[in-house]
Amino acid sequence: MTSSLPPLAPSEVEGNSAEGSVPRHVAIIMDGNGRWAIRRSLPRVAGHRAGAEAVRRTMQAAVDSGVEVLTLYAFSSENWRRSEDEVSDLKGLMRFYLERELGTLQKEKVRLRLIGEPAAFGNELYERLQQAVEETRDNDRLTLVVALNYGSQGEIAGAAKALARAARDGALDPETIDIAAIEGLLHTCDLPPLDLLIRTSGEVRLSNFLLWQAAYAELHFVDTLWPDFDEAAFNSALGEFARRQRRFGGR
Ligand code: IPE
Ligand code: IPE
Ligand code: MG
């Protein structure tokens, strides 16, 4: 089966560690807003509001560090299990920060992208999001990917369904289905491979985020609650990444 293995990219060749290198693609599971608020005897929405400020700081840190893509898990396909009030607060905050930060995205040359199924948030918010994606499409300093109503298992199931339909319709020989065929149908298909995945708040799980894409990502778990995350915490994660040795199955 060795012949079916794709050749390693230059950054993946034997003996080439991540040493000294800046990850091209960093993703973050921004967790701990609720606990941050509870510790201050505040409503959960105050934690989400403070979390949005952490998004601003982190985006700026990513721009300054030369990271190409920052992917943020903002709402999972399982977060609908929360109360109607909390979901509505989160939608309101998304809208508010989108309006407030659009100028910053333009000034810092940040291109907004979405993954997941954000249409479920309703026409008004969805159209505004799409418009922001359109307005920032030519920015080239950082790609900010926001995962909205995203679930990795659903994403992979969607790819399987598309392949099965093509095979049923005679447009695809099932024998030709390989890793690239599935990857090409994921929401992240045009993004560089995920290098570093960070989760805040002390939880050590992936919660249905980028399961396929994390195959060879470096994982970084910190106890910091998301609203307390800042440039120093981001740079510390990049520093640890630079000390890791990536092997990709080689020696
Ligand atoms: C992450 O913080 C934000 C979202 C999932 C939208 P949480 O709201 O999950 O905070 P905790 O985990 O309850 O502290
Ligand atoms: C993951 O956090 C989702 C986001 C950060 C948007 P959760 O708080 O929803 O994850 P679990 O429920 O603790 O696994
Ligand atoms: Mg949580």
Automatic annotation (TrEMBL):
Gene3D superfamilies: Decaprenyl diphosphate synthase-like. Substrate binds at residues 32-36, 44, 48, 76-78, 80, 82, 199, 205-207. The active site is at D31, N79. InterPro entries: UPP_synth-like, UPP_synth-like_CS, UPP_synth-like_sf. CDD domains: Cis_IPPS. GO terms for molecular function: transferase activity. Keywords: Magnesium, Metal-binding, Transferase. It comes from the Bacteria. Its EC number is 2.5.1.-. Binds 2 magnesium ions per subunit. It is an enzyme of class 2 (transferase). Mg(2+) binds at D31, E218. Its cofactor is Mg(2+). It holds the Pfam family Prenyltransf. Homodimer. Catalyzes the condensation of isopentenyl diphosphate (IPP) with allylic pyrophosphates generating different type of terpenoids. Belongs to the UPP synthase family. This is Isoprenyl transferase. It comes from Sphingomonas glaciei. The gene is uppS.
